[in-house]
Fold each of these.
Amino acid sequence: MSRARRDLIVVGASAGGVEALQSLVAALPAHLPATVLVVLHVPPAGADALAPILDRAGPLPVRRAEHGAPLEPGQVLVARPDHHLLVVGDAVALSRGPRENGHRPAVDVLFRSAARARGPRVIGVVLSGALDDGAAGSVAVTARGGLALAQDPREAMHPGMPLACARATGAEVLPVAALADRLVRLVGEEVDVGAVPAPSELMQRETAVADMDPREMETVARPGTPSGFSCPDCHGVLWQIDEGSLRRFRCRVGHAWSVDSLLAEHGHAIEGALWMALRSLEEKAALSAQLADGAREAGRELTAEQFAAQARETHRAAELIRRMLAESPAVLLTGDSLVEPGRTG
């Protein structure tokens, strides 16, 4: 029997997550016998300010993750903008691998790589965020004998992520104020490393893709089955991956999408297409009206009326699209899910 202690905490957050992270870090003790790794979804060009913010919040030292930095207890490492944060052996790695759910860094990448490297020694914590990021990563953590915790969705500024995590894994749900106490009790617990399943082939391959491993990137066969849907990032074919109650998608070059994130991205694409259509119709109407005026000035009344009728018809079509943009349900414009977070339908 191979024994070890729980000594790695991975935390994921998105919208509304800064406040939750500050509260969590503030309540952790200075001599925590575990490493804490944090991913917050931020824009690629966003300010790299999270580490200083969290460093001021509590007694644990917080710093930006550096490629190859060892996992040392009593410290918090924060993912950098536009870089995935992974666990590789006893250290962290930074990667500019394919985005997952439109994000880099991505919560699922961190959780999955931690599960592969540390198995039951990992505790995953999902905080405030929209949609269902972190659910697939939490499934990976629990599949390897780790534990999943989630912020109480009723408390979270955006409940989607913790709710999806809880539904996908049965994660323990607690207010942020109680999460720190729970973590303190859990870290240091002995676990039997040899009693848990080895990392699945899917977990190995997906982590390798996130780390831009050329052997995996060049492999022709992809996990899952061709879906008939296209990747919003590169427009390649998406392969469907069913993992327990979760349905996910990944393209040939590695972009990954949950059901909710794929719906959201297509919603944004539809809105963009509608605005382009509205612009084209308005330009056509304006041009038709201009040609009608010119025909009247030239005394060609029949031609002028034809152009004027075309302008009126085009304005009516444009008005239909304006009403659609103004009144369409959120599922069209924001991609709000039609299924429960973490469910396949």
Note: Residues 333-345 have pLDDT under 50 and may be disordered.
Amino acid sequence: MSLPRQQISRAAELLTSGITDKLYTHAAYALMRHGELLASGTFGAATTETVFDLASLTKPLATATCLLQLVEDGRLHLRQSVHRFFEEEFGPLPHLNGVEVRHLLTHTSGLPPIPRWPEMAANTLRREMVHAVLTTPMLRPPGTGYTYSDTGYVLLGEIVARMAEMPLETLFAQRVSRPLGLSTLGFCPTSMPGIAPTGPEPPGRVHDPRARDLGGVAGHAGLFGTALDVLTYAEAIRVGGRPLLSRSSAARMAETQIAASVGAQSYGWFCAGNDYLPQGDLFSDLSFGHSGFTGTALLIDPKFEVSLVLLTNRVVNQSEDGSRFLRLRRLWLNTMAASLL
């Protein structure tokens, strides 16, 4: 199958305009349908080997995936109380009563977007940072509302590491990157050439400040990779999860797991009806996906058997608030959908 040249040309023009308008210096995309790579491209200083800071794509690709693997292993279940994973080390945490693992996974825990954080985090032990997150005040009782929460995913990353009895980055390498044969998808890529910059920090140092304070590895951010490696992961989920997850786990990722009155969120992913979903206007309402603050996005559309990745380093332009980038991304998604439909 080939895509209409006019639509692909227009999609390329849009991403090139982002370079011209200095929204980003690096961009790459890749699209598969029916398991076939139909289109890909690089823009600005990017090549197919360019590694991007994936930001919050870490949440579904690393944290949610590894968590569900542990669920499949019988190491934990999603109705377990969160405070029980930490109370032996940190003592009673009564404000977390009623918060279960599933609430963290679906952003319905009642925890705020950003956790309480030590003022001098650079000189603080990881244990003290985790304690600060655990003592972050709640916004509301668990299960009663939806608030996208880095706080919850920081805790999920810690739960995964504790239950796996190994660091998150090691578990991810062993059980996600290695089975898929992905050489660039991982944490702390300091030895890799061709990393897209995200600001004044050296390329390869994670952009998110809390992930940076945690040594570059956290449940909410820290993952890096190329567009083609991210696409390979997406295809594994789209076709049923193997070799990473069972079909039952992949199905839970593909459909919302919370009440419609609360929102639209699966185990790790935004679903149709969630304004955070990078869907555009033309992909189907079966779509699910995620985005990242650095200018990254991944969309899976089971109805049209599509996986689509867009990676940029839009935070390199610190004078922008992101609104122009989001407009461009929506236009681009529409051109890609039109090329298929």
Note: The domain at 5-340 is CATH 3.40.710.10 (Beta-lactamase).
Amino acid sequence: MSEPEKRRRSSDSLFSTDFQRIKRLPPYVFATVNALKMEARRRGEDIIDLGMGNPDQGTPQHIIDKLCEAAQDPRNHRYSQSRGIPGLRKAVCAFYKRKFNVDLDPETEALVTIGSKEGLASLATAITNPGDAILTPNPAYPIHPYGFIIAGADIRHVPVHKDLDYFEELTKAVRDCWPQPKVLLVNFPSNPTAQVVDLSFYEKVVDFAREHGIIVVSDVAYAEITFDDYEAPSILQVPGAMDVAVEFYSLSKTYNMPGWRIGFCVGNPEIIGAIAKIKSYLDYGAFQPIQIAATHALNGPQDCVREIREMYQSRRDVLVDGLGRAGWEVDRPKATMFVWAEIPDKYKPMGSLEFVKFLLKEAKVAVSPGIGFGEYGDEFVRIALVENEHRIRQAYRAIRKVL
């Protein structure tokens, strides 16, 4: 037996691997698809990857220039602030005033996060007690339910579907839930379903939350990626929302900055304070030059945001029209960088994961299985608009051949 094998055997016997939080997490479905993609590429196959929502364009140059400038200052290489630098928090509040006409206090009602995923996880850690009931959408972006599951909560799923009244499903979930839900998470424009709402929806949610004493967590990461004259509202526009709600936003998609890991949370000062206290133990904030560049992104010229929005709208139209010509009719989303496509009836018995494997093998096109976002997503796949129009045309032509 080799020395490494001896060491492994010895260490295996020293402790129990009864990691309860890990056991509460299911196998990561997307890892299966990613492994198949890598195998295909190692075989030399050209895979058109429309799976992960990972922008293919670079960050606007003026933001990169500010990062480089800030990185030259040695003072910016020291520890930063876990709550975010004051200038960025002020820029966040100015953005909310400009976009939503919402007034915020940068000292008590705004907090910088290392991307929205970290922020949501820190929120769950800050406000969740073991066994708390949390209402999350299904299908959902995985951090929405699993951030709370990792924190020890019990999840109650609220179905999201174009043919369902979401608020009606929400009231049913609260009526049938014991103990009383502590948190309601809403995500519009939605990842993965691209569903949108208007301000009247949030008005009902705020009234409902105040009546039942529920904290509302809103995720509006795609508030700027909207099409066809649709404008995404903020829950904080509703009078009284600050009493019950916080809202997360990310610069990842708005400014093509996913790898920079920068976002923020705004809203109820008590909840913001709780997240800030947790973060003070966990991190020193994002690298300060990134925060300075993010400040410049929010305060600087916004032509780049319009250009990014128009690019995704054009790609959406190319994909939806092309799939329609291929006999696969899908809804045209009003927001996000995704198309939530119902699987053709002939292939629904396969389930979304097997259908994705089928498209990968036969059409050389990778998309995301709906089951990865929750059981109610298994008749759908999510298609990300992260390739140029030429590649998208290649994708739908290949799909047309196999369908």
Note: The longest helix spans residues 303-325.
Amino acid sequence: MRMNIWENLPHPFLILAPMEGVTDIIFRQVIAKAGRPDLFFTEFTNVSSYASEKGRANALERLEISKTDQPIIAQVWGKNPEHFAEIARALEKLGFQGVDLNFGCPDKNVNKTGGGAAMIKTPDLAVECFRNAKKNTDLPVSIKTRLGWKAPEEYREWLTTLLNEHPAALTVHLRTKKEMSKVPAHYELIPEIVKLRSQISPETKLIINGDIKDKQHALELHQKYPEVDGFMIGRGVFGNPYCFTDHTPTRNKLMDLLYLHLNLYENYNKNHKISYEPLKHFYKIYINNFPGASDLRAKLMDTHSVKEARDVLK
């Protein structure tokens, strides 16, 4: 049995949330440079893609990790229990310290296939997927989910179902699938969720996600809710890539990170032909809150290569 990474984290610990199209191997290295969280998560990988001959190469590309983004948890999604078992068997050899099952993604395309947050509507299948993953790996298996599908009150039945399986950790995004990110996170429910965890599976690490801006905000929440083990920061990283530190980023520091991001992209692209377009989504992280920032961003959005971006920045 391998060491359980969840038992070797500080209290509280901070995690960079898995975000599709954001927390790839390149951006994780940028955040590691700015100020690393206690734990990284990958973007989520489709278990059925990994199980297919046609999709495995793409799945393995999504599961690439670097020396700087560890310890790291692989997040996976799908609805086929056998495919969860297959990918779980492989992840330890790929260098991961744990596997996390995505039962909370609100993306319509993901939900149409029965994956992500749609698992909330098929709890028996969710349990089967979890059990298949757990029995086929020595890695700790955790879950990330939402309060429910439509109503926040659904958390009682849904989280009870999950906690009865005793996951190594449970991350709760404090909104429903229907709410997306349109309403404030339901922090008022934290005491009840803590109570539920303590009653059913006290060994499960409880992580809170939703509207957490930075380390300081997480520590304030920890003062109020000391029984929460960890806090996961997602969109807060767009406001401040130094969110896992006590530093206030300067314009020069942000520009240094942008150049690092461009360098890492170029190096990665030597062996992986990836599109330039998604890189543009990151520019707003580094180019903001100074005179002329919006004009500079607009020019960068009109570029078609890293070379053109560098020319604009000069």
Note: The chain has a mean pLDDT of 95.
